[in-house]
């Protein structure tokens, strides 16, 4: 009996709310340290000396923000070059995710349209969430810098950014999508 009282007394020294709060704090601290320390994340914190001039401070901030341009993908490629090569080497290039209704609808529409036009259209759907390591995040960041669009799908036709699924649907509803593909991709008109 005394042994069970000792155990209860030892566990009651730390109330459960304190243990939960302490556990949450440790988890948050671990996450923050991971972001600050892990160079693959692409996020860094730089300390700017307040005594230095404003131009030095702004250049330090620009350098810390532009970390993505120095990181390489798992293939050894620079994300900017990878994205540009994909856009340049395809008639229709769709950066997407493997899930979600907007991604699925855009893929289905473009696949259906490529069969309807009965042309050989060089089209690629790249699901960035299925890429290894941090490659998807690096590509997302690069696409956002190029297009100012963070969402997916991110669609290019004839090397021209047209937007996402909403814009694709609008162009298609107006009857302009087929013409755009033929004019920009094949160089013909209907």
Question: Quick gist of this model?
Answer:
This protein is of the alpha+beta class and 190 residues long. The chain is 54% helix and 9% strand.
The strand count comes to 4
- Helix percentage range: 40-55%
Order of helices and strands: HHHHEHEHEEHH
What is the name of the CATH superfamily of the largest domain? Glutaredoxin
CATH fold label of the largest domain? Glutaredoxin
CATH architecture of the largest domain: 3-Layer(aba) Sandwich
| Major sheet details | 4 strands, mixed
β-strand percent reads 5-15%
| Terminal Cα span | 91 Å
Question: What descriptors fit this protein?
Answer:
single chain; 190 residues; alpha+beta; Glutaredoxin; 2 domains; four-stranded mixed sheet; 4 strands
Description:
This protein has 190 residues and is of the alpha+beta class. The chain folds into two domains: 2-70, no CATH class; 79-186, Glutaredoxin (3-Layer(aba) Sandwich). Helices cover 54% and strands 9% of the residues. The chain has helices at 2-11, 16-37, 54-65, 79-88, 101-116, 135-147, 165-173, 177-186, and strands spanning 92-96, 123-127, 154-157, 160-163. A hairpin with a 2-residue loop joins strand 3 and strand 4. Mean pLDDT is 74; it is low at 6-14 and 31-68.
